[in-house]
Amino acid sequence: MIVEYIRYRIADQERRAEFEKAYVTAAKQLDRAPQCLGYELSHGLEEPERYILRIEWTSVTDHEQGFRGGPHFPSFLAAVRPYIGDIEEMKHYARTSVVSAAAGDTTGGQTP
Length: 112
Fold this sequence. Notes:
The protein is an alpha+beta fold. It has helices at 13-32, 60-67, 73-80, and strands at 2-9, 36-43, 50-57, 87-93. The chain is built from 3 helices and 4 strands.
């Protein structure tokens, strides 16, 4: 698994509302894509013009060739195309062994 981070900066408040609606639409295509393992869109609190989209992919190749070459990408791209110019970073990352202990905790912090 790899993680893609896409950082957006959308200055206009009205465009931010439209951006979030666009990702509701685009997310439907991510849900349908077998290459996508999960995603989340986060909105900056201190800097409300900032967003980070985190997408987990099965691999870089599956993302770049499978998803982008597959049937779900055209609709995904159509939804987010107006915001491509707002991208500040779009990169793939590999997870390291440094992970929160709570990430693997299925007991809700309770001792079984």
